[in-house]
Write a structure and sequence with these properties.
Helix content: 40-55%
Shape: globular
Strand order of the largest sheet: 2-1-10-7-6-5-4-3
Order of helices and strands: EHEHEHEHEHEHHEEEHEH
Length: 270
């Protein structure tokens, strides 16, 4: 396994400082976000990120974004959807510069009262268009399971992958904590066997309805680890958790220790 940290948990505002903290903690990789008009949409910003990553001997397994919530790839508003696609293309270009294997995509955001089938078709169209752009540049598209009222079961998720995968390299970016909100993470892992490109880890407190750090929530990690073993997944494990409110620089080392405990020791403290 190789271990990374998503931007949700970056302990410093400066990317280079975060790289330094992660490298000192023993991480293998870092997963930055690309946002509209952000630094990774410019050649200068990408080059600075490349230099920071290389200086600290880190890799970039994937590039993510939070912008697809504001600019959904399924939007009935053509302008919003095109902005979402533009951000996605910027993600691909940033991935090329940083040597990332995949970009993380939220394919749709379904609002109350929306026509689900129409949103589904627009999401398929957008992802297919993006997959072609990414394939031409040697980058994969990894669809994340999120709380977006879309593809709530692993079977529906797999069907969506069926509908887009011939357009380019498209797989799943499986999020353990998110899966608990609509089912059992272990079932998702089995259902998506062979199609999971990357794994995000977080935990989820059902009663409080919020994210927490593994294994402090309601995820049954023993079953998750058994499923990971059965499907023979040995790729990237990236934490997508919040920073600590105080002393944020301490969180990455704590989180890496937890991930290694879970995925290398199998949760066995002996």
């Amino acid at each position: 396994m190789r271990y990374g940290l998503n931007q949700a948990g970056f302990p410093a505002d400066e990317f280079e400082e975060t790289c330094s903290i992660l490298a000192a903690a023993g991480y293998d990789g870092i997963e930055p976000n690309v946002e509209r008009d952000g630094p990774l949409t410019t050649e200068t910003g990408r080059q600075a990120a490349v230099e920071a990553v290389e200086a600290h001997d880190l890799q970039v397994p994937a590039v993510s974004t939070i912008s697809h919530w504001e600019y959904p790839l399924s939007s009935v508003d053509d302008e919003l959807r095109e902005i979402g696609l533009e951000i996605s293309r910027d993600m691909v270009d940033a991935a090329v510069a940083l040597g990332a294997e995949d970009i993380l995509i939220v394919p749709a955001v379904i609002e109350d009262g929306a026509t689900y089938d129409a949103d589904y078709e627009r999401a398929v169209q957008s992802v297919r268009e993006l997959a072609g752009y990414a394939a031409d540049r040697g980058v994969g598209v990894a669809i994340e399971n999120v709380q977006n009222n879309f593809l709530p079961s692993p079977d529906e998720f797999a069907t969506f992958l069926d509908d887009v995968e011939d357009a380019g390299p498209v797989g799943a970016y499986f999020d353990v904590g998110n899966a608990l909100r609509s089912g059992l993470p272990s079932r998702w892992l089995h259902a998506l066997e062979g199609r999971i490109e990357k794994i995000h880890v977080k935990d989820w407190l059902t009663d409080a309805h919020r994210v927490t750090y593994p294994p402090q929530g309601d995820v049954n990690w023993e079953r998750v680890l058994d499923a990971v073993d059965v499907i023979d997944y040995d790729g990237w494990i990236t934490a997508e958790v919040p920073t600590y409110p105080s002393f944020p620089e301490r969180m990455p080392a704590d989180m890496l220790d937890t991930m290694q405990f879970l995925f290398e020791d199998g949760g066995d403290g002996q």
